[in-house]
Specification:
It holds the Pfam family UreF. Keywords: Chaperone, Nickel insertion. By secondary structure, this protein is mainly alpha-helical. It has a domain of 146 residues: Urease accessory protein UreF, CATH 1.10.4190. It is 66% helix and 0% strand. The chain is built from 10 helices and no strands. Helix 4 packs antiparallel against helix 9, helix 5 crosses helix 7 and helix 6 runs parallel beside helix 8. It starts with 25 loop residues before the first helix and ends with a helix.
Length: 211
């Protein structure tokens, strides 16, 4: 069995689809940005608005009560919680897919699904992953999605799905990772704004503080 090594600071790679000077063309960069904005938009139909990644429970328990406690909670999620783990699995899935390593990708997908600590969290990430893959195969199909389908029979988590699709479209890992974490953080903040509740200005203060 392949051992997957994780580090606190993932190496940020770029695709090798570059010109002779090592710089992607403006058209390539624009296309990559457009696709990331589309895939990770709140309007992309994966149902992200239906989930809060445990924030609803934290508010009910009194752990999150205002802007500062929401900010502290989300910072912990990014540094050592769901955001950190999702980022690592996205990176490893991107690298395995980009290298065409189907067996490794299958092990990463299995580990990512097993890493969800609760039934609710498992449902959240696998439901979004399934929806993301279904839409991607219909509109943006690529070889890496075929690789994923041929080596993964169990549930697919959301970050693994995003990493595999981005690799298939030769979108830089660094751009993919930052876009994914920004979208996740924005969704968490939106949940906090609705449930605490907070004002829109407070939400932007939290987002700015988490940059």
């Amino acid at each position: 069995m392949t051992t997957i090594i994780t580090t606190a600071t993932p190496m940020l790679m770029t695709t090798n689809d570059r010109g002779q000077d090592g710089i992607a063309s403006e058209a390539e960069e624009s296309a990559a940005l457009f696709r990331l904005m589309t895939w990770l938009s709140p309007s992309f139909p994966v149902g992200s608005f239906s989930y809060s990644s445990g924030i609803e429970w934290a508010i009910e328990a009194g752990d999150i009560t205002d802007r500062q406690t929401l900010q502290d909670w989300l910072a912990a999620m990014l540094l050592e919680g769901a955001g950190f783990c999702d980022g690592l699995f996205l990176c490893h899935a991107w690298r395995a897919a980009e290298a065409g390593e189907g067996l490794v990708l299958g092990e990463i997908a299995e580990l990512a699904a097993a890493f969800t600590p609760s039934r609710e969290r498992h449902l959240e990430t696998t439901a979004q992953g399934r929806a993301f893959v279904e839409i991607a195969r219909s509109a943006w199909n690529c070889d890496t999605l075929d690789l994923l389908a041929s080596h993964v029979t169990g549930p697919i988590t959301y970050p693994v799905a995003v990493g595999v699709l981005a690799a298939g479209h030769r979108i830089a890992l660094s751009s993919t990772l930052h876009a994914f974490l920004h979208a996740a953080t924005s969704n968490w903040i939106s949940a906090g704004v609705r449930l605490i509740p907070l004002g829109q200005t407070d939400s932007q203060h939290v987002l700015a503080a988490l940059e």
